[in-house]
Structure formats: structure tokens, C-alpha cells
Amino acid sequence: MRRALGGLLLAGVLGGCSVDFQGWAGMKDQPKGLPFRENAFFADGRTMREPPPDTVPRSRRGVSRRFLTGREAPDAGYVEELPLALTRELVEGGQGSYDIYCAACHGVLGDGVSPVARNMGLREPPSLVDLPEYEDGYVYAVISEGYGLMPGYAEKLTPTQRWAVVAYMRALRESQRARLEDVPAEARARLLQEGVP
Ligand code: HEC
């Protein structure tokens, strides 16, 4: 009796399973529009629809093209200077992102010295503190779109975070070329007391 009951229960469970499974297969194979497939329902024969003219993505409302691309216009030059206020908070945020996403290759100091750099056979990540004087928008575009063997970071960093990395790179660069005379007088005395490396 017990065994019979067990068998009945098992059959019930398996039966349930197979019904479920068929249901899923049915859903999977039903007629539906996939993004890049043809679609006879629409006049243009495509499944993907065009957004109505002048549609503005909500995430980009109020943000200019130069802020998003680092370029003055599609075929024009790069934005010369950071298009947002340079604050300590911005630079520190940039340092956070730099240390996570860039330092592994370009080195914590930006000098191109890192275990990854030593082992990258095809092309070593260059020192970022010795690059020629680029516009801020150029560096922003490299971070967004990538450069040669380097991947872009648009999916990992928001536009503001990318500009923050640009700001931090400037700070890194300055930190390694600053002379004692560049330091404000009051801080200079402190540095001399503590000893300048
Ligand atoms: C996987 C390693 C790697 C990571 C991570 C990486 N880079 Fe690079 N980067 C490279 C390499 C390699 C090059 C040189 C590419 C080439 O010449 O093909 C390069 C080139 C550059 C250049 C020079 C462009 C020029 O005109 O010479 C800049 C600026 C730069 N990277 C910034 C960054 C920043 C900022 C980050 C972080 C958001 C970053 N990189 C993350 C490997 C990396």
C-alpha cells in the first residue's frame, strides 16, 4: 500500500514536471518578434521600431552632446577643458574609479608601471603622466570609446565618472612634476619641515 502510494506520488511529480516543461517549450517556440528579425506585421518589414522623431532618452535629459562625447560637434575638435566644476569631491571620485579601472594596467601612479603592463606582450599600457598635452575631451573620448588595444569604459563608468577620471589624471600628472615653488607658501613650510622626498 505504502509503495503504491509512493509510486502514485512520484508519477504525480513527474507528470507535473513534464506538463510544466511542455508549457515552457511552447512559450519558447511561439511566434514572436525578435529584435533583428523580419516582421511582416509592420510596413517597413522590421521588428525593431524607430523611436518617434525628437525622442530624448530620459537618462540624458538636460545633458549636452559635448558632455556626453567630449567633442564640440560630431566632426569638430575635442572639448578643451572639463565641462563640469572642478571640486575636491570630483577628483576624489575620479581617484576611486581610476584605482579600480585603470591602475591595473597604467599603474597606481599613472606611470605605466604595473604587473599587467610588464606582461602585456602586444603593446604595453603607456605612462599617462608623460602623454603629450591633450585636451580633456580627448582623454574623455579615449576612456569612453577605447583606444587601439584598450577597451572603452562607457559601460562601466557614467559620463560624470569619466570626467572625474580625467580630472584625477590631471592631478596625478601635476603631482609628479610639481616643484617646491608651485606649492603655496604656508604648505611649503610644512613640507620642508616634514621633509620633501
Ligand atoms: C587592460 C589594460 C588597460 C586598462 C585597464 C586601461 N588601459 Fe589605457 N591603455 C592601454 C593600452 C595597451 C594602451 C595603448 C593602446 C594602443 O596603443 O593600442 C592604452 C592607452 C591609453 C591612453 C593613451 C591614448 C593615446 O592617445 O596615446 C590613455 C589616455 C589611457 N589609456 C587612459 C586609460 C584610462 C583613464 C583607463 C581607465 C578608465 C585605462 N586607460 C584603462 C591599456 C589599458
User: What is the helix/strand order?
Assistant: HHHHHHHH
* Rounded average pLDDT: 85
CATH topology grouping of the domain at 63-176: Cytochrome Bc1 Complex, Chain D, domain 2
Bound molecules: heme C
Work out the number of β strands: 0
Main CATH class of the domain at 63-176: Mainly Alpha
**Overall geometric form:** elongated
Secondary-structure arrangement, i.e. CATH architecture of the domain at 63-176: Orthogonal Bundle
Low-confidence stretches: 6-18
| Major β-sheet annotation | none
Structure description:
The protein has 197 residues and is mostly helical. The chain has a domain at 63-176: Orthogonal Bundle (Cytochrome Bc1 Complex, Chain D, domain 2), CATH 1.10.760. Helix content is 47%, strand content 0%. The chain contains 8 helices and no strands. Helix 3 packs across helix 7 and helix 6 crosses helix 7 (159-175). The site of heme C has 20 residues, from helix 4 and helix 6. Heme C binds at residues 101-102, 104-106, 116, 123, 125-126, 128, 131, 139, 142-143, 147-150, 153, 165.
Summarize the structure.
By secondary structure, this protein is mostly helical. It has helices spanning 2-29, 65-69, 88-101, 103-106, 115-119, 136-145, 159-175, 185-194.
Which short descriptors sum up this protein?
197 residues; mainly alpha; Cytochrome Bc1 Complex, Chain D, domain 2; 8 helices; 0% strand; binds heme C
Describe the secondary-structure layout:
Blueprint: H1 2-29, H2 65-69, H3 88-101, H4 103-106, H5 115-119, H6 136-145, H7 159-175, H8 185-194
Bound molecules: heme C.
GO molecular function, one term: metal ion binding
InterPro entries: Cyt_c-like_dom, Cyt_c-like_dom_sf
Organism: Cystobacter ferrugineus
